[in-house]
Every structure is written in structure tokens, then in C-alpha cells.
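Sample intake sheet
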Amino acid sequence: MKQFILDKNKYFFTCTFLVFFFAFILYLPLLKAEYLWDDTLIFVTNGNLVGDKLTWEILSEPILPGTTYLRPLVTLSWFVEFHIFGQNTVISHSINLIIFFLNSLLVGIIATKLAKLNAYHRANWIGLFASALYLFHPATLETTAWVSGRFDQMVTLFCLLAISLFLSKKSTFKVFLIGVCYLLALFSKELGIILPVLLLLFSIIKPLNPESSFVKSIKASIVSNKLLWLLLVVITGFYFIIRIYSMDSLYHSKFTSYYVNEIIINQLKPFQTLKYYILETVYPFRILNPIHPINSLDLTSLVSKVSSIIIFFIVAFLSVVGLLKRNVVGILFVCSLLSISLVLHFIPLSIMDNLFHERFMTLQLAFSCMMFSLIPYSKIFNKLNLKQNLKKYLSIIAICSWFFYCIVTLYSVIPFWMNELSLWYWTYQSYPDNEVMRYNYLLSASQYDRDDILTEEFEKIKKSDEGFSPGTQILYANYLLKDKDPESLNYLEGLIQVLPKFHNMADGKLKMNSFQLSARMISGIYSDYSGAMLIFKDNPQEALKQNQIAEFYLREGEKYPLLQYRVATLLILNRQEEAKEISDELKLQNFPKGDKYKQQSINVVNLYCSKDNFEIEVCKNNKYLDYFK
């Protein structure tokens, strides 16, 4: 054993293997997790991603309705994945897990290079420590457990690859590879735009030219890497041209004077957000959650505002000092801040009423973990005049305690990411007074046919003074409709009466993007109303009309379930030719869970045919089943 420890290479690689292996065992349950949260909206119900044709329109479609999020590389990764493996949750989560481990490895590689560059002792062990910090930091769980977290994972991967290449020996081919990484980062997520600044900061780390000032170092870096900077400028211009061509605008939210005065100056939201990101970085055990509603956080008190301002100025001071001294720890500190600069609410964000998200920390944590691994702790201890043994024991206790709490937190939280119901149960228990959390919890209960949960929660709402919110009322109406309760018709008609008729407006699609209910929720109202017309009013003609209205609110790749119900309605109306035309088109689509929607449509016709006072052609000898084969 002693001889093994003395063999430094074997000992190091064994420790590295054990760290990554233990992390793999910890994250292994996620391979059984389902698609959840925005997965359904982004790709599960997007028929375009499982279709036969790949077009730029599919790749450049905004990730969420009403936004300008252009992320074609991640969309392409799903398109290829689904065509090779189908929509398989094990494959999707395996890919996310692989990217996460690659990112953790790159964190260690870059930290090792920086340690060697700055003449640190035991550079390899510093790199391993950085990787371990990243592997076990609870805030990295969201992008690893959630398939849609691939946006942040992939932009982090290509940014870290570019930085690792930049720190290696110079060559023209290396410049080309960095340019490719930059383009891939941009096409993974908008955050990639900060990569040139990150590379510039890495180029001025002090040991490369210790005598130069900050300004001279910047100039020297530009001159010595002029081919690289020229390439990055060209790629940036190309990216913005593609973005404007595809989205017709650079960004979907307007930056107004009201936003500056109310959000930035009065509410101090950027300063408050920065405070919480810093807290989550150093102490990720208390408020870890996929959702962080603004109204559940202390943002209005004087103490909160003053502390946020103080933290901001401390951060600004440390950033300036780090830049001027060009110290590796200071540069990494600035890089970590840059990595969250776009989500600090200095510009409007489309994250509903949330202050921040852990997924936005994926790249930021990479630099933070490098920074913490490269802090010269021995110098700090020396200034404290502590005894050698005390230093050793304090270090061991601090490191072991932090990792212990991280592992316990991950072990406790990973089960919540296994399916929609467990995820939203967690958030609802964390924020029981938040309407969005309750809506998501009830929606997931409806998807899993948990009528016991729905009944209990709806009874609570009825007994309370608050009443049904619009979102909850939609779910309650659907709950009654599934139970064939005629009262659902009253709720649906009440919702339709107060809804703006976007489908009758010339600019309706634009206006509905800023409405409090999502387009899919509005479509669901009309779709349910269509079903209610059949069940309670025996009015297939009106059902068809409402089904057609519902289609207006859906994107092209989301229409499959609705069109299956339309086939059923057309059959009931004895309009077989129209039903066959739509049915034949739908048969060409390999829509996820298509059999489920076919069966539901069959159930609609069965229910209608079961009424004794109706005699329609398709009900004879079950002829209608041929339309759903």
C-alpha cells in the first residue's frame, strides 16, 4: 500500500477514477428519469423533431413561443438522437450525463493548466479538486437531470473546450478549432457571445508577461493573437446576420425607460440577483430548487436592498483589483461574473416571475470551482499564524464537511427529478402559496391521472377565499370534463367569455405572446370546449369549430393530438373524405406517444356511438377504426 501511494501517477489516476466513479453512481438513478417540465413543450410534443425532413426552419424555430432564442445546434442534437434511438428517456439522460462529465473533466484540465502556468505545486491535484467541486456541486444537478438543460451544458462544453485549446501551444489549426467552438457555443445558447471576452481575460493572466500593466497586456494580447480575434469578429458578425434573418430581431423583449427605473433602480433586481447567485455558489444547500419566485424571496426590505448594494460594490472592487493585478484567482472571479452577466436582469428576461435559476450557473460554476481550487490557502493560513497540524485538520474538516453536505443534498434531491409529479410536488411544498407552483403540481397530477390529488386540492381551493385562478380553473374544467360532469361546460364557457379573441385579430399571434396564459393553455381551453360540445350538447358542428380555433394557438409541430380529435369529429359528422385526408397526413408523422392520442380519439367516437339516439355511418361495424390504424 505504501509503495502504491509513493507511485504518484498510479495514486493520482486511481483517485481521479474513484471521484468520477462515485459521482456516476450518485447520478445513475437519473437514467430512469422521465421527460419533464419544458421538455414537453420544447421537443416531446414537437412533431417536427421526429419527422423525416430536416430544414433550417425546424432548427431555427424559437425554443419557446414568443421568444428569439436561436439554438439550432441543440435542436439538431435532438433531431439526430430521436431519429437514431427514438424518444428514449434513457438515451436522452445518458447524453446529458456524458456532457456533464466532459465539462467536469475540462474544468479539471483547465485548472491544471492554470496551476502549472502559475507555478503551483501539485497542479494535477488542484485540477482534480476543481473537477470534484464541479461534479458534486448541487447547482449543477438541474442541467444534468433535466434534458432541456442541454442548452446550458453544450454552451459550457464549447466554451471550456475553446479555453482549453487557447491555453495550449499556438498554431493556426488551433485558431480554427477555437473559432469552430465559438460558433458551436453561439448555436447552443446566446451565452456563447461572451467567449471572446473570456479568452481575452485568460490571455492576460500575469505569469505570461509579469511586467506589463493591464492595458499593455490587453494590447499585447490583441497583437499576438490578431488572427484569432479577427476570426472571432467575423463569426460574431455572421451569427448576428443569421439571428436577424431567422428571428427578424435581435431580442424579443424591449429595453425601456420604465424597465430601467422600476426594475433596475427601484427594485434593484440585478443587485439582488447577484447576491443570490453568490449565495448559491458558496452555500447551495438552503434554497436549491428549480423555481425561485420573486414574491417568495426577501427583496423589498431595507436590509435586503442594502446588503445587495454592499455585495455589489464588494464584487465590483474585487473585480477591478483582480483585473489590474491580473492574478489567476481574480481573473477567474471576473470570468464567473461574466458568465451570469446576461441573466442578472440588466436586460429583460423571459423566466416568468423567477429571480434566478440554477441552470444559468452551469458555466459560472466552472470558473468558480477553478477559482476555489487555485486560492493560495497556505498563504492565508500563514497569515493567521496557525500551527501546522491545526491547519491540516481545519482544511480536512472544511473540505470533508462541504463535500458531505453536497452529496447528502444531491442524494436527497435527485429523486424529485424522476418525473413531473415528484418535481412539482417538491416545488409546491417549497412554495405552497405560489399559484404557478400549484398549477404545475395540479397539471402533473392530471397527467398522471391522480384524481385523489386533484380532488383534495380542488376542495381546498373551494373552501378558501381565494377562488380559482385562470390556470387552475382550466385544470378544474378539464377534471370535470374527464369525469363527464356537465359543470365543466360552465367553467369552459366562462373562460372563453373573458379570453381575448386572438384568433380574430390581425396581429393576434403577436399579442398573445404577452398574455398571462400561454398559447398552449388557451388552445387547451378551446380543445376541451370542443369535447364538451360533443359530450354534453351533442353538437359535433360546434365541436369542429372550436377544434379549428384551438389550432390557431399551436405551433406546427404541436398539432398532432388536436388533429387526431378533429378526425374523430369529422367522422361523427359523416365527412369521411376530409377525415381520411387528415388521417393519411398524420400517419406519415412519427409523433411521440401517437398511439395514446389515437386511442383517445377512438374513445371519443365510441362515446358518441354509444348514444342510442344517434345512427351515423362510421358507428356501423366499427368502420372508423381504420382511420386510426
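Comment: The CA atoms of residues 104 and 134 lie 6 Å apart. The longest helix spans residues 89-117.
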